């Protein structure tokens, strides 16, 4: 298993955990068609485009789009972001370590006018051993 | 006969009276429900569409350069498992419920121009 699949698998373990499922926030990966009406949901993309220590390591950013119904103000986005922080910030999954998160502005989703969207991002490093 | 069934009977009667305005539409289910993060594969569930739903299609006040909006008046049904509605062969996305009093509901629907 290469570093990209391994990183993805380690990050997926969080979203497959009973604790995360209990949060009841529908979670989908990139390149997976899903519309969830006006309900809250998130879509995650792993962007492993950073520097690395060796050939088996990689760093990057986990980008998570947070979707909520329009007209509800920013609070639902902040609540989801805080929930994600409690699972990701300074946490390690296997050999993938997360650091400090950031949250972008809330804006109307271009593909679906009943949704507002913000991007939560958190850098990570995946450590492989030669 | 309780009030609930009296109201329901009157709703049925009202849809009968406005028969000329009623269109039969199909509520389409969400094909894909979940993503299995353990196996990294989609879990596809195909559920039956709900066909022959009596509906009145109305104009919407909402306007956008990218989307066409309409409103759909139907008898109340649980729309949680549906994300699209087909009207005269055109598929529309179901938006926010505008109201639902338990007997009738008004839904916002939209599609790309």
Describe the model.
The complex is a heterodimer of chains A (130) and B (113). Chain A has 130 residues and is α+β, with helices and mostly antiparallel strands. Chain A is 25% helix and 33% strand. In chain A, strands 1, 2, 3, 4, 5, 6, 7 and 8 form an eight-stranded mixed sheet that branches. The longest helix of chain A is centred in the middle third of the chain and has 14 residues, at 75-88. The two termini of chain A are 13 Å apart. Chain B is mainly beta and 113 residues long. Chain B has one domain (3-112): Thrombin, subunit H (Beta Barrel), CATH 2.40.10. Chain B has one helix and eight strands. In chain B, strand 7 and strand 8 (104-112) form a beta hairpin. Chain B is globular and about 50 Å long. The interface between A and B is medium-sized, with 20 and 18 residues.
């Amino acid at each position: 298993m290469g570093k990209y699949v391994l990183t993805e698998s380690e990050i997926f373990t969080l979203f497959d955990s009973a604790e995360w499922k209990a949060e009841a926030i529908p979670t989908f990966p990139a390149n997976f068609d899903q519309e969830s009406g006006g309900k809250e949901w998130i879509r995650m993309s792993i962007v492993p485009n950073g520097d690395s220590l060796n050939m088996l390591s990689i760093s990057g950013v986990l980008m998570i789009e947070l979707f909520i119904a329009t007209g509800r103000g920013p609070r639902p986005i902040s609540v989801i972001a805080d929930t994600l922080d409690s699972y990701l910030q300074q946490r390690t999954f296997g050999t993938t370590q997360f650091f400090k998160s950031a949250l972008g502005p809330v804006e109307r989703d271009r593909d679906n006018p009943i949704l507002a969207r913000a991007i939560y991002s958190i850098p990570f490093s995946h450590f492989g051993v030669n | 006969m309780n009030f609930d069934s009296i109201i329901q009977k009157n709703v049925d009667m009202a849809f009968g009276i406005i028969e000329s305005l009623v269109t039969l539409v199909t509520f389409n289910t969400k094909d894909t429900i979940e993503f299995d993060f353990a196996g990294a594969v989609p879990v596809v569930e195909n559920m039956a569409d709900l066909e022959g739903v009596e509906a009145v299609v109305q104009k919407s006040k909402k306007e956008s350069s990218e989307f066409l909006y309409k409103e759909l008046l139907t008898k109340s049904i649980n729309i949680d498992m549906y994300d699209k509605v087909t009207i005269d062969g055109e598929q529309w996305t179901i938006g926010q419920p505008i109201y639902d009093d338990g007997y009738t509901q008004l839904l916002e629907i939209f599609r790309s121009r």
